[in-house]
Amino acid sequence: MILIYLSSGLFLGWSLGANDASNIFGTAVGTKMVRFKTAAIIASIFVIIGAVLSGTGASHTLGTLGSVNALGGAFMVALAAGMSVFWMTKMQIPVSTSQAIVGAIIGWNFFANMLTNYNSLIKIVFSWVISPVLAAIFSMLLYIFVKKLLQYLSISIFRLDIFTRAGLIIVGAFGAYSLGANNIANVMGVFIPSSPFHTINLGFIRIGNTEILFFLGGIAIAVGIFTYSHKVMKTVGNQLVKLTPQSALIVVLAESLVLFLFASQTVHQWLVAHNLPAFPLVPISSSQLVVGGVIGIGLIQGGQHIKYRIVGKIITGWVTTPVLACLLTFISLFFLQNIFEMEVYHPVDYQFNPAVTKKLESKGIKIPQSADRLHFRNSRQVKQFVDTCNQISSDSIHTLLEYSRQDSIYIDPHKFPHFKDEVADWFKPGEIKALLKLKNNRYTYKWRLREEYLKSLNISSQNTESSHLGSKLDYIYQYFSLKEY
Question: What does the mean pLDDT of the chain come to?
Answer without folding.
Answer: 81
